[in-house]
Structures are given as structure tokens and as C-alpha cells.
Specification:
145 residues, mainly beta, OB fold (Dihydrolipoamide Acetyltransferase, E2P), 6-stranded mixed β-sheet, 5-stranded mixed β-sheet, 3 helices, 11 strands, globular, CheW, CheW-lke_dom, CheW-like domain-containing protein, CheW-like_dom_sf
Length: 145
């Protein structure tokens, strides 16, 4: 059976996962520059070793209240994209899990709201459900929530 690895993270106590091959790194950061007139999901910009990175707030993408960027360090999941690295602002970083492709289940038809476009499917873990994130949709700040 084919297997895959997912880097996990939490947003509002929901467990999400992204294929490890799409992850550049995970960092904790606290100095962001706001972007006037940017879509609400753009949490800000930050400098990562000389490269300007846009940070997309996963809480906003899920229709939740905005992440506080001024209270302590914020967790960033830096993803590789064709256009360069982009950060997902998340509540907590988890670990890496090995999953069997055969255990993947598509998103249920009754899933509604912003999560519908963000969740590509799910994996049943021992004690919880891990939602497989559709990275392209999560990084899109032009789609309405």
C-alpha cells in the first residue's frame, strides 16, 4: 500500500494536515507588517532571511476571528509554491504523521461554509480526524469565504 506523510497543525482545535513535500519549514515569528487594502485573509508580511513572505491567516480563511499578531509569537507553516514561499498562520504546530493512501476519504457532501473549499478530504487517526488541506484554496485570498 502507498503511504504519505503529512505535517499537522491546529486551527481552533481542528486538526489539519499538509503533505510534507509542500512544507519548507515551520517557524515562530512575531514581527509582521500590515498591508493596507489587502484582502482580510492576508495577515501581513515578514522578512525571512532577506525574503519577504506573505502570511495567510487560516483563522480568517475558515471564517473565524483574526489571529492576534501582537500577542506573543505566531506559528507559521511556510509552504513552497510556484511563486515562492508563503506562510500559513496557524494556532499550533503538530507533528508529522505517516498515513496510508487507502485511508483517505473525500470531504463529505454535507460539509459547508469556508471549510468546503479548504478541505480536500480526511484521514481517521487513532483519536481524531485529520482534515487534508487543499493548499491552493488555502492560499487563495481572492475567493470569498
Amino acid at each position: 500500500m502507498a503511504s504519505c506523510q503529512y505535517a499537522t497543525f491546529e486551527v481552533d482545535d481542528r486538526l489539519f494536515g499538509v503533505e510534507v513535500t509542500k512544507v519548507q519549514e515551520v517557524i515562530s515569528f512575531h514581527e509582521y507588517t500590515s498591508v493596507p487594502l489587502a484582502p482580510a485573509a492576508v495577515g501581513g508580511l515578514f522578512n525571512l532571511r532577506g525574503q519577504v513572505i506573505a502570511a495567510v491567516d487560516m483563522r480568517v480563511q475558515l471564517g473565524l476571528s483574526r489571529q492576534s499578531l501582537t500577542e506573543g509569537a505566531v506559528m507559521n507553516l511556510i509552504l513552497r509554491t510556484e511563486d515562492g514561499p508563503v506562510s500559513l498562520l496557524v494556532d499550533r504546530i503538530g507533528g508529522v504523521v505517516d498515513l496510508d493512501d487507502a485511508d483517505f476519504e473525500p470531504a463529505p457532501d454535507n460539509l459547508t461554509g469556508p471549510a468546503r473549499r479548504l478541505v480536500g478530504g480526511a484521514f481517521k487517526l487513532d483519536e481524531r480526524l485529520m482534515l487534508a488541506l487543499n493548499v491552493d484554496e488555502a492560499l487563495s485570498t481572492t475567493t470569498g469565504n
